[in-house]
Specification:
The complex is a heterotrimer of chains A (about 500), B (about 525) and C (about 725).
Chain A: E1 2-3, H1 8-14, H2 16-33, H3 54-73, E2 78-79, H4 90-116, H5 121-140, H6 144-162, H7 169-200, H8 205-214, H9 219-236, H10 245-252, H11 255-280, H12 285-308, H13 313-334, H14 337-364, H15 380-383, H16 385-399, H17 405-419, H18 423-449, H19 465-483, H20 486-495, H21 497-502
Parallel strand pairs in A: 1-2
Chain B: H1 2-7, H2 10-31, H3 37-58, E1 67-75, E2 80-86, H4 88-106, H5 116-135, H6 139-148, H7 150-160, H8 165-198, H9 205-208, H10 215-232, H11 241-248, H12 251-276, H13 278-281, H14 284-306, H15 311-331, H16 335-366, H17 382-395, H18 402-417, H19 419-426, H20 428-444, H21 451-454, H22 461-479, H23 482-511, E3 522-523, E4 526-527
Antiparallel strand pairs in B: 1-2, 3-4
Chain C: H1 2-23, H2 31-61, H3 76-104, E1 112-121, E2 126-133, H4 135-158, H5 165-184, H6 188-206, H7 213-244, H8 249-255, H9 264-280, H10 289-292, H11 298-307, H12 312-319, H13 321-326, H14 328-349, H15 355-375, H16 379-414, H17 434-448, H18 454-470, H19 478-507, H20 515-520, H21 526-541, H22 549-553, H23 555-559, H24 567-587, H25 600-624, H26 639-645, H27 650-697, H28 704-723
Antiparallel strand pairs in C: 1-2
Helix pairs in contact in C: 1-3, 2-3, 2-5, 3-4, 3-5, 4-5, 4-11, 4-16, 4-21, 5-6, 6-7, 6-11, 7-9, 9-12, 9-14, 11-16, 12-15, 12-16, 14-15, 14-19, 15-16, 15-18, 15-19, 16-17, 16-18, 16-21, 16-24, 17-18, 17-19, 17-21, 18-19, 18-25, 19-25
Classes of the chains: A mainly alpha (about 500), B mainly alpha (about 525), C mainly alpha (about 725).
Chain lengths: ~500, ~525, ~725
Amino acid sequence: MELDFSRQLHFWWALLPEIILCAWGMVVLIAGVSGKHKKGGAEEGGDPTLSGGADLGWLALVGVLLSALANGWLYGVTEVGRTSMIAVDGFRLFANWIFLIAAALSILISFAYVYRQRLQAGEFYALMLFATAGMMFMAGGRDLIVIFLGLEVMSIAVYALTAFNRRERKSAEAGLKYFLLGAFATGFFLYGIALTYGATGSTNVSVIGERIASGAASGTLTTLAITFLIIGFGFKVSAVPFHMWTPDVYEGAPAPVTAFMSAGVKAAAFVAFLRVFLVAFDASYETWYPVLWWLAAITMVSANLMALVQSNVKRMLAYSSIAHAGYLLVALTAANETAAAGMLFYLLIYTVMNIGAFAIVIGAAHQAEERLQVEDYAGFGWARPFLGVVLTIFLLSLAGFPGTGGFMAKIYVLQGAADAQLWYLSVILVLTTIASYWYYLRLAWFMWMKDQVTEGQHTLVITPFPMRIALIASVCVVLYLGFAPGAAIDFARDSVQGLGAVGGGLLGLGQ
Amino acid sequence: MTALLESLGYSGWALHALIWLPVLGVGLVLWADEAQAKILAFWWSIGVFVLSLGLWWAFDPTRADMQMVSTTPWIEAWGVSYSLGIDGISLFMVMLTTFTTSLAILGSFNYIQKRERAFYALMLLLEAAVIGVFVATDVFLFYVFFELTLVPMYFIVGIWGGERRIYAAIKFFLYTAFGSLLMLVGILYLFAKAKLVLGLPTFAYADLLQVPLSGTEQLWLFTAFALAFSVKVPLFPLHTWLPDAHVEAPTPGSVILAAVLLKMGTYGFLRFLLPLFPVAAQHPTVVTTMLVLGVIGILYTAWVAAVQPDAKKLVAYTSVAHMGFVVLGIFALNVNGIQGGLIVMISHGISTGALFLLLGMLYERRHTRTIAEFGGIARVAPWFATAFVITALASIGLPGTSGFVGEFLALLGTFESHPTIAFIATLGVIFAAYYMLPMVQTVFFNKLETDENRQIKDLSSREMVILAPLCALMILIGWHPTPLLERMEPSVRAVIERVEAAGAADAQASFDPTPDAGPDVEDDGIQVTDGDE
Amino acid sequence: MVSGVFASLIALTQGGGQAAAEGAHFEPFLPGLVVLLPLLGFLANGILALRHGRASADAVRAGGEFNLGGPDSRPSTHTLPTWIGPGVMAGAFLITLVNFGRMLGVHLEAPVVVHYWTWMATGTFTVDAALQLDQLSMIMMMIITGVGFLIHVFSVGYMKEDPGYPRYFAYLNLFVFFMLVLVMGSSYALMFVGWEGVGLCSYLLIGFWFADREKADAGKKAFIVNRIGDVGFLIAMFLLYKAFHTVDFVPVFAEAETLAYGGALVTAITLFFFLGAVGKSAQMPLYVWLPDAMAGPTPVSALIHAATMVTAGVYLVARSSVLFALSPVASATVAGVGALTALFAATIALKQNDIKKVLAYSTVSQLGYMFVGVGVGAYAAGVFHLMTHAFFKALLFLGSGAVIHAMHHAYHSTHRHEDAQDMRNMGGLKAYMPITWATMWVATLAIAGIWPFAGFFSKDEIIWQTAAFGGAAGAPFPTLYTIYWIIALAAAMLTAFYMTRMMVMTFHGTNRTGEAEAKQLHEAPATMWIPLAVLAALSAFGGWINVPEAIQNSFLGGMGAFPMSEWLHHWLEPLTAQAHHIQEVNLGELSHSAPFGGGEVLWAVLSTVAAGVVVLLTIRTVGRQKIVSVAEDTTELTGISALLYNKYYVDEIYDRFIVQPIIEASRFCWRVVDARIIDGTVNAVGLVSKGIGWGISMFQTGSVNTYAFILTVGVLVILGASLF
């Protein structure tokens, strides 16, 4: 099918995955009102998959599946012209897969949590679906307005999710913080859009790109616009120094939400970041490249250093996610096809391994917000060998160790950096990676090299069936991509092909 | 034998089997009974060893290039292939690995008392990874294996180690990762350059050899690679992870660490540093730096070793000294030196491995490693003392043992090219006696005073089975190293020739007065960049 | 049966002889077996020792001691070593004899090299495992297997009650194996195998009674000091390789003359070789290990630290005569070090009370003589003295062993813990041990250089050659050689003195052992005295194989029929000819008169008369001295006596200025450089990283205000950076 955006209806087709998600979110919301799903329980023993909101979770998963079908269907679609507000390209679709996977995994790991924390299942899953839809808008938007819309849809849903566990003081506090600071950053983002419009007379990234390339845009205004947009995106991807909210919010938010946003929100922001900067501001590379270079460097260094001193696992993973943002910023700084594909590939693996790691953290925390210190993991591996091995694999993958997807991802990003001759940045990347080994392995050493403090310390660890599905699926993906990444690499590479064509050639290509 | 192997198609599958059989063994061991795990692991590793013995006959000693090569595309987008092969340099490393792994496993029967399945599974995993390092002919694959060795070792040290095991494990891990990650950047540089010059992405060793690099590039890359390998070797002053790792590691861990893992560093020197960056490798500053560091390693660590109160730490430091000889031999950049270095590598693997096994056996009996705690136990454990003395003598390079052949040739080679440095290094011969003999004396000789020492048991038959082949090899290689030397010679010669050719080209580039005749010539579409000095 | 053996021996000998008649063809007879037999003996004895060790260990573990010959003992642990140990030596000696006989029958111009296998081959460097048979190695083999055999036999008696009996023979056999490799190896590399191998055996045997810390220490010291010399040997080999691309004797000597006479390279090679020799042969300044080496069983001292191993350095110089002849500086150094050592050690020997210490310093001193000999180009004379010294010094040591053996038994029987080796506790032993007394006097006269005992001829030739060399027309540093000559003469007088002193203190005068003990003193058993007697015969007449022509022709010669005038000289001629030729070309003819006039015969007569006078005077003076036993001896030594008694404090000086600083430096390297500086840096990187991380985390206050503030700062910085 060929989409022609002069026809209104075709927008509906192009946005099918998003529309399905939004609609399905309503369905879940309505289903949740019916009351019988409301009650969660804190009592132990009962199988959380069979009561209290589990059916809403499965319902939400169906929505994700339908959306995924739609996303797959879009591969058979071509678009006419390249300046519509909605992009139908491999880049967007690949990103959608990431969001859908993030959503699906997050939903799977939250069943027991929702139940035990007596969360409102209907609203919880609906918000997740809405947030996912927002992410998709960000990835698919070829217009700054659409991207902004997506950003807001996603953010507001995530703000709500963060504060969702209203019985926890920390959760509410995190939600508020996130909201306040997010609003602040959004302001910059909006300014950025406005200034871009002022400089180029358009909000369409392709058009902006052409205008800037042709020299029709005002230099100073463009620079200002770029700066503001960097700040806006930097906040969402939690680049240092706009990361301050991250540890608090990640720590305070309900754990499944943390997993979801550390993967999904970051991915969405990066994808949009990449599209805007590589397509719209391609010609201003010289302007934004040093800023991003420094952002990447500072982010990698300070995040990894701060992660070293964390003893709370959730906080440690929060800093780790900032660090990964730093690595992804390297790809962005490299700004070439390899790096773009590397970024997609990285985000995919990051999503899987990060949510996987969080899943075990949630399980180990008794599906609650307890036992989050590193010390609580003493002897965990020997008590729960399966979870121990799986978590170890996730940690090694997060650290970027051979045999795991994380390694391939890091290599891919480094290849992009190599193509762009970013040697210093590459060196910083690997040196900070060494620091990251320390805190990832620290968890591993508590798990395997220390004995349990008290006997039976880990018997209450709850990993219900859906969570196990998520874990097995994630670990399989991580290992599969670690051993046979070929297909995924080709897929990521093909996915960024269209992107380059739009912007008139990605930087660094054809050197 | 050769015919039999041929009829089995041995050279086609042997290298694959050597990597994947241990991996299969990991599964089996994990699946087995806790009580059976060690028996199974031992026989499994013996099987792998027997399999590797076939290499001896299947290997064609007259060839210098990679043999038994097999290549399967792995990640085509990046030009990575799963390609294996061996030459005269890696042949012995593989055999050393399979040999010492078997003995290390046998040697851990008493030492490892808890979580046996996991332990033996990790040992086999380690074996697979190490063999992978030595047979990989794709740089990416090499790197994967190179890093993979860290994980099982990390857990072996960290879980079954001594008091400060976690500190030692993490130190080992971070230290070595530090070097190898910088090498990764170097590998990616080569890769990017190869893509540019050859027009296709490739990580194949043979292809990367074709990539022309300027002198400056070579120096930078050399540094990156050298860092990775020097940490592994370890070369002074990057050695401080080693004593900690050795002391804390359980016996089999120390054995493998000393016998095999350190060799990955020097192997890397030979396989990558010299052939890939020949101009840098013979740059006078570089050569002098490496040689001087090697010499410092020999003398300095000998001194440090001599005053260690802990026997295991002492032996750990001597490892650094031995590897100093290897580094000398390699950077002598001649046939004698490199072959000597290789023999030292083999000899060190055998003798230091045996020393760690012996110290482990001592520890099992006495639960201490403090030298001063012992005394006079030759009287109650004569076989033990005999084995220890033979091993110690091989370790300090007494003629008639493997240690001498290696050190002699390595020093001879060094003397050929750098007499002063070789002269200083030869002093290491004295200091070897200075660190080893007092330890031997305090532990085995002197008066038998304490009751604990009086009750020390002599070698059991299992322990004799472990030590006998090691001691026999030390003496056999000491008297008849020719079968080893003749197999490594062609490959070593090829390395030297490559380095020398680059040196000649470089000299021509620097001294050729006519720019037209310079090396900026188009050759098969590949531009040869100049020597950039 | 004995006659049968002889008959077949003669037949074997003539096998070579007949060939000689046809075309001077030397057919070596099983040379490999000479080396192999001791090795097999080692293995057999070693296994016995380990088996015995197991049984012994059980006894020790149970809290007792192992009693050899007691109920715990298996018969095999005593009987088998008794036969295997000396047996393999007898075999090796017989084979050597056959070969010697065959070589006698021909005039062998070039060495015969028997290849076995390629030892090392790298493509540019090859060493074979090959044995070289020539006149020099034959002499050495004869000494090693012959004297070695006698000492093995002696040991059977001496070590009879030692719990380590099989182990002892294992080590001793191993030593002989390595010593034979040393002298028979066809290359420097193979020689080095033996060189370090004998060092190892020396280490093991000195520390044979390792439960005694001092003895174990002595072994360690010997090994380490030897290794200092070994470094020199190694470097010399490297230099040789650099010059000739081989370290095999035959090609090296064939091409040696391509090196410039007196050139730096050949001087360096020879000096480094000499460093090796200094270590092995206990010359200054590395002699310190040899006196300590007396901690080993006395037969070991006889075999290793007198007759064979310590002479390896002399053998090395003699073997490398071509190279040394090419370097006058190195040769002068060799002779100089030898002369100084001869004098220096002799002075120390003057004041020692331990019978073995006297002999040890005497050995050092005599080795010095040998170096003087080979240093002045008199290679045959050096080897000659090596040989005679092997006879009389082995005899002296074995004799002292017999004395110690007796003394030890005496004290043991009364459970007194007195020093069985201190001469102050002896005296008057002549009455109890007449054979020992007599044989030792033969050796004493031999070493003192009294005509016609062996030492007279060998020592005198060295002294004479020193004079003759210094007087040569082109001799470098002639004054130096005059000094050497005077030193050599002086040391000879000192030798006569301290040896006689030793004899008098031990055997003459009144007995100071103690009354009860004296009753237990007895002559050595037959296994011990027969070797003494054989060696006495050799010490008495061994010198006659090489009577200098001058003496032969003089009145002295006329008094005895010496059928073998200058035999050794001629025998070694094929090997030393090249060196002599070099000498002749570069130095001219040797002088025929001593520095202060007089010919060879005159000085020979003078020295033997002087030595005789010294001996007689010493008997008188020392005999009159009042000597008291150790327990009663309260004299405080002062001045020179103290200096000599304490061996010039050389050990203390080494300890203070070399050993302790190295240990201190080692500690410094470990505790400061390694632990603080290097590891400290590494750990600091970690700590600083954490510190920075902790520092940055300080901004993470949890307050939204702070966050907003930092965000704003970030904004401003980025804005500023992009705009300006």
